């Protein structure tokens, strides 16, 4: 019996060691490239022609200044901040009530809307960029005939609206799953106290759903901030482009003489907001992925 326990403990320890080795290898494959981008962003261009893995001889922060000025990335960053925040705002004010209603109330067309939103999960946004562009372009053509000016293309608000629309299926799916896990005791207690449906949703259910809402905001922030294809298609004016498109402009401006330090500095400018956001909401994100409502 003692030998069996010893063998069981040895097998369990070996399994734990194997799991830790796999997790460590995965962590290294993620951390090393990110760290290397930060290190490369403060190197002088001449250092890249020697050993690219060598540490920088000094901190060449001029790369960030050059990247900011060469590709006009300051203006592009403001555009990205505006589009991302507006897209998340539109998404939340639409998705939260929709997910709550679909999760908590029964009505005739409820199953139909659930199926429609579930079907949206299987649509790759990149495949419908051309139809979206043609639809907006045709709308602008009609507006030119009627009012003499377009509206839909080269409009940051429309881009944010497209972002929010394409993110609705996943967001409603995630939020409705969380709402279904909450016990109905909370709502029944609120109804007894005289609260209506809207007051119950905003003052009782929404505060309880904070971890799930933070998870949705983080996922969609990453998606909107790093999105490239839709932004490049719907925004053709240089002054309206977003940060990922601006980074491509920086690379295109250096075709004749590549400045690696500036390019990596541009990558850091794009990555830094998402990394800082993740660090700030890491605990809430973990809760949003694991928490439910009352147990038992």
Any overview of this molecule?
By secondary structure, this protein is mainly α. The chain has one domain (60-290): MetI-like fold (Orthogonal Bundle). It has helices at 2-40, 62-70, 73-104, 110-120, 129-147, 156-181, 185-192, 197-208, 210-226, 229-234, 243-252, 260-280, 282-290. Mean pLDDT is 83; it is low at 292-296. Helix 2 crosses helix 12 and helix 9 (210-226) packs across helix 13 (282-290). It is globular and about 70 Å long.
> Between the first and last Cα atoms, what is the distance in angstroms?
38 Å
- If you consult CATH, what is the topology? MetI-like fold
Q: Round the mean pLDDT to the nearest integer and report it.
A: 83
What is the C-alpha radius of gyration, as a whole number of Å?
Answer: 25 Å
Approximate strand percentage: under 5%
Total of helices? 13
Q: How many independent structural domains?
A: 1
The fourth-level CATH homologous superfamily is MetI-like
The helicity comes to over 70%
Give helix and strand order, one letter per element, not per position.
HHHHHHHHHHHHH
Q: Stretches where pLDDT falls below 50 for ≥5 residues? A: 292-296
Number of strand segments: 0
């Amino acid at each position: 019996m003692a030998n069996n326990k010893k063998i069981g403990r040895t097998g369990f320890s070996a399994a734990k060691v194997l799991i830790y080795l796999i997790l460590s290898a995965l962590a290294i494959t993620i951390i090393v490239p990110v760290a290397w981008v930060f290190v490369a962003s403060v190197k002088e261009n001449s250092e890249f022609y020697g050993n690219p893995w060598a540490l920088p001889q000094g901190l060449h922060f001029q790369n960030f200044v050059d990247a900011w000025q060469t590709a006009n990335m300051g203006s592009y960053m403001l555009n990205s901040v505006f589009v991302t925040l507006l897209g998340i705002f539109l998404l939340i004010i639409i998705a939260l009530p929709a997910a709550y209603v679909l999760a908590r109330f029964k009505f005739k067309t409820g199953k139909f809307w659930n199926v429609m939103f579930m079907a949206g999960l299987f649509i790759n946004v990149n495949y419908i960029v051309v139809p979206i562009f043609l639809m907006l372009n045709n709308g602008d053509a009609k507006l030119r005939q009627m009012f003499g000016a377009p509206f839909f293309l080269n409009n940051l608000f429309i881009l944010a609206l497209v972002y929010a629309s394409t993110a609705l299926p996943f967001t409603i799916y995630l939020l409705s799953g969380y709402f279904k896990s909450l016990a109905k005791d909370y709502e029944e207690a609120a109804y007894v106290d005289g609260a209506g449906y809207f007051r119950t949703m905003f003052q009782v259910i929404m505060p309880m759903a904070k971890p799930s809402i933070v998870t949705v905001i983080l996922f969609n922030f990453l998606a909107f901030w790093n999105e490239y294809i839709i932004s490049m298609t719907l925004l053709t004016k240089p002054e309206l482009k977003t940060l990922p498109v601006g980074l491509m402009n920086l690379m295109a401006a250096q075709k004749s003489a590549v400045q690696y330090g500036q390019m990596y500095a541009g990558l850091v400018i794009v990555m830094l907001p998402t990394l800082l956001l993740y660090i700030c909401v890491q605990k809430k994100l973990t809760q949003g992925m694991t928490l439910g409502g009352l147990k038992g």
